[in-house]
Amino acid sequence: MTEHLTLRRPDDFHLHLRDGDLLRTALPFTARQFARAVIMPNLKPPVTTWREAAAYRERIRAALPAGVSFEPLMTCYLCDTTEPGELREGHARGVFTAAKLYPAGATTHSEYGVTSAAKIARVLEAMQEIGMPLLIHGEATNPDVDVFDREAVFIERTLQPLLKAYPALKVVLEHITTEEAVAFIDADASGRLAATITPQHLLLNRNAMFAGGLRPHHYCLPVLKREQHRLALRRAATSGSPSYFLGTDSAPHAARFKESACGCAGIFSAPVALEAYATVFDEEGALAHLEAFASENGSRFYGLPLNSGTVTLRRTTQQVAPRIDFGRDESLVPFMASMTLPWQIVTPASCSA
To answer: DSSP of 55-121, one letter per residue?
Structure first.
């Protein structure tokens, strides 16, 4: 039985850091284990220009603990009015790594998002030309679509036509949750389509939202799905396929906003992200594939160099904190709060990206 596991320093290809006190509290948890992270742009107001992204990047860098190496990879929030020139310039200046498509109304702060792919046709053509990946929150938002079917419907109605219309566009279907998504990714042979998978969708099914009562800290979007979908995701993540890579979708919200009459969607997984993934790969007998999933597949898809540092985990139990204080009289509830995980990071990430 493996007792210690040393990995090339991984990257998080889907991360929410927020801003202000939340940023300063959440960032150290990510930076202690990940060399880079693709930063989501759904602030309020959203990050829609390269100047806004550059300023946000500097706020992130300023919030890093002393001596910690971490590189935020910035994204552009796509709107119906986004101009291709904005993306071209941001990409040329080394500010934009990718652009994010939120269907309007799909998730937190997505009200500024895209109402139709046709509205951003010139943007997608430009992205295809310059090789900038399109990151997609893949859920249909039509009110007639059941919340548990939104991903499968989006793939059929929106993603398939989009991929056909832009045959050279690189696309990441983020935080996939269904066996339909796995089948769609597996059927692609182009190498331009990939997917991220979160720790919560690997460890929990939708029963977790209702175990002994309503569990607001297990509510995220896309929502947790049936057990058959969780098992399909576990098979995909641990398969060794280069089409899947690590993206936590860690999304901190103050506990009072989660524990309210209209609670926010999002799970703050950063404090135990790598340990949670290690638990899944261990349970599936696939620890040999964890480094590729966490540290290699995403970098290769994005055309980034592999990291040179390492991080080591030890097979030892850790009790996850019930709450994490931040700001003035605020707290966060982390993923797996008050529960026990069988792995723990024992050496901090070393070297640089």
So the answer is: HHHHHHHHTSPTT---EEEEEEE--TT--HHHHHHHHHTT-EEEEEEPBTTSSTT-TTSBS-GGGGH
Nearest CA-CA partner of 150 in 103, 191, 112: 103
User: Are the beta carbons of 150 and 107 closer than 8 angstroms?
Assistant: no
pLDDT tens sequence across 300-311 = 999 999 999 999
> Choosing from 12, 249, 325, 329, which is the catalytic residue?
249
Secondary element (H or E) of residue 203: helix 199-203
Per-residue pLDDT of 173-191, as tens digits, reads: 999 999 999 999 999 999 9
249 assigned to active site:
yes
Structure confidence at residue 135 (pLDDT): 98
CA angle 344, 264, 234 (to 5 degrees): 45
Both tokens of residue 203?
């460890």
Q: Quick one: pLDDT at residue 353? A: 47
pLDDT at residue 349, rounded to an integer: 63
Residue entry with tokens 């679509």: 145
| CA distance linking residue 93 with residue 85, whole number of Å | 12
Exposed/middle/buried for 214, CB within 10 Å: 0-12, 13-18, 19+?
exposed
Distance CA 43, CA 28 (A): 19
Q: Give the DSSP letter of residue 268.
A: B
3 state SS of 290: helix
Which strand ranges, in their side-by-side order, compose the sheet holding 193-197? 11-15, 36-39, 71-77, 96-101, 134-136, 171-173, 193-197, 244-246
CB 302 within 8 A of CB 263: no
**Nearest one of 247, 105, 267, 116 to 176, comparing CA atoms:** 247
Q: Identify the helix (H) or strand (E) that includes residue 346.
A: strand 340-347
Spell out the domains of the chain, with CATH numbers in brackets.
Answer: 4-347 (3.20.20.140)
Smallest Cα–Cα separation from 94: which of 79, 113, 72?
72
| pLDDT lower than 50: segments of the chain | 351-353
CA distances from 260 to 107, 117, 214 (A): 17, 34, 11
Task: Report the C-alpha gap between 76 and 85 in whole angstroms.
Answer: 12
pLDDT at 111: 84
